[in-house]
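Weekly sync, protein design subgroup
Attendees: M.S., D.O., the rotation student, P.L. (late)

Item 1: inverse folding check
M.S. brought a backbone from last month's batch and wanted to see whether the design step gives back something sensible before we order anything. D.O. pointed out we never logged the input encoding, so this time it goes straight into the notes. Structure tokens as presented (461 positions):
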């Protein structure tokens, strides 16, 4: 009798559920979420890379991608483990890369993760490919973030609808001093555990170059004990653009959007110790990367604008502060001479984080190199939420160190870079320094500055 009652009860429950939710249950089914990392990078007009970290075996994880948010007819993509050929029993187990190709230019895509055929809920994202040819687009520049920060500045960036978030370093302040790969995964998982940062990284493509605190300890160099492990972590956990062939000890990269070329230099992995004598053998880049950098400048001569990410301040003259270019003056002079000699000074803009301030120099104080200097503009874009500091300079605009508000929290800052390119004879770039003010609970503008660059001989790359 008891068994009969149980059978009838079960039947009623099943029928009731089918009545309430419909006879056809959603397919694929939704299962509890275990995603710890999910972001998009390396976006071009036809390609992109998505990196996801879950508790599942990469062989069981798939990606749906569609131009419709409803995923009416998605393509199903199989990913690859972060490290091919290695046993996935370490801290990179569960990290999977999805390298997307044959995408349509200027198209918005939606994606979602599946594990064993079932959807991982609330882990959907979107990105837009760049157009072919000359184009206008928006970039947000920023760096220096409290580990796992939930600051409103990240939602502000997302609302600004950038086409690219260019992160200039110190994404977290874990200051990892021992070669423990699990600590790097935990650091990036903590970043993604912030709903505000997670929403940003799932809606805006990323280009990111580390600095000292997210590479290793404070003021790190290539001699840091973590060097090899940090390399594995970056390559495995970050959706980066293609690294130069044969490169193993640095993570420099370059890419183009229309007639604008971006160069991201790694100024930690091959750096000489800061305390070394400032002579021709002291280097931030290392021999191999410096050759790549110079070659990249040569290849970029047909661009209208070159954005060089130097993670530490370029304009700096205080020899006591040797963690920036003021401690590497011999190499700085070498690079400035080269920039002048190959004729790209008129195209070049240098962008940096590290200093917890927003500032801009129109070239007046960029006096390094032959004659009166290369005079290229320099932009400082930080801190996204760290307490303010002023380093380097002087600058023609600012500096504006990030403030500590009356509400007991740091304000947030970044620089918005708007590129206007209508395929004419010039490309105009406007930089706007912005601050999310806690006391006012709103965004305010700190400065606005524009420069137009000749594009008569420039072509998309």
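Designed sequence read out in the meeting:
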């Amino acid at each position: 009798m008891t068994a009969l009652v149980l059978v009838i009860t079960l039947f009623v429950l099943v029928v009731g559920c089918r009545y309430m939710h419909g006879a056809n249950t959603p397919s694929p089914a939704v299962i509890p979420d275990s995603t710890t990392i999910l972001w998009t990078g390396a976006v071009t007009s036809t390609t992109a890379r998505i990196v996801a970290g879950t508790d599942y075996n990469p062989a069981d994880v798939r990606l749906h991608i569609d131009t419709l948010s409803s995923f009416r007819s998605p393509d199903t993509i199989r990913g690859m483990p972060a490290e091919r050929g290695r046993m996935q029993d370490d801290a990179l187990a569960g990290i999977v890369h999805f390298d997307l190709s044959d995408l349509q230019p200027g198209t918005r895509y939606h994606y979602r993760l599946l594990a064993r055929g079932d959807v991982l809920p609330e882990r959907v994202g979107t990105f837009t490919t760049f157009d072919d040819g000359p184009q206008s687009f928006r970039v947000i520049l920023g760096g220096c973030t409290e580990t796992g920060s939930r600051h409103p500045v990240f939602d502000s960036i997302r609302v600004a609808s950038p086409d690219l978030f260019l992160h200039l370093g110190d994404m977290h302040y874990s200051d990892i001093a021992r070669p423990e790969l699990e600590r790097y995964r935990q650091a990036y998982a903590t970043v993604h555990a912030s709903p505000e940062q997670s929403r940003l990284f799932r809606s805006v493509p990323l280009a990111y170059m580390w600095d000292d605190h997210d590479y290793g300890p404070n003021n790190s160099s290539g001699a840091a004990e973590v060097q090899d492990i940090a390399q594995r972590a970056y390559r495995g956990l970050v959706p980066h653009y293609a690294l130069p062939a044969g490169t193993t000890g640095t993570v420099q990269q370059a890419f183009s959007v229309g007639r604008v070329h971006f160069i991201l230099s790694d100024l930690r992995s091959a750096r000489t110790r800061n305390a070394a004598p400032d002579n021709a053998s002291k280097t931030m880049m290392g021999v191999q990367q410096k050759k790549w950098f110079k070659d990249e400048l040569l290849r970029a001569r047909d661009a209208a604008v070159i954005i060089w990410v130097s993670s530490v301040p370029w304009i700096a003259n205080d020899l006591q502060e040797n963690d920036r270019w003021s401690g590497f003056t011999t190499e700085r002079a070498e690079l400035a001479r080269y920039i002048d000699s190959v004729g790209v000074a008129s195209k070049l803009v240098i962008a940096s984080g590290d200093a917890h301030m927003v500032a801009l120099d129109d070239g007046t104080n960029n006096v390094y190199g032959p004659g009166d200097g290369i005079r290229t503009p320099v932009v400082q874009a930080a801190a996204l939420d760290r307490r303010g500091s002023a380093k380097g300079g002087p600058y023609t605009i600012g500096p504006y160190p990030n403030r500590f508000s009356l509400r007991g929290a740091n304000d947030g800052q970044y620089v918005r870079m708007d590129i206007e390119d209508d395929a004419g004879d010039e490309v105009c770039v406007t930089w706007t320094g912005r601050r999310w003010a806690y006391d006012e609970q709103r965004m305010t503008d700190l400065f606005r500055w524009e420069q137009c660059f000749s594009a008569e001989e420039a072509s998309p790359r």
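Discussion: The mean pLDDT is 91. The chain is about 20% helix and 30% strand.
Action: P.L. to compare against the previous round before Friday.
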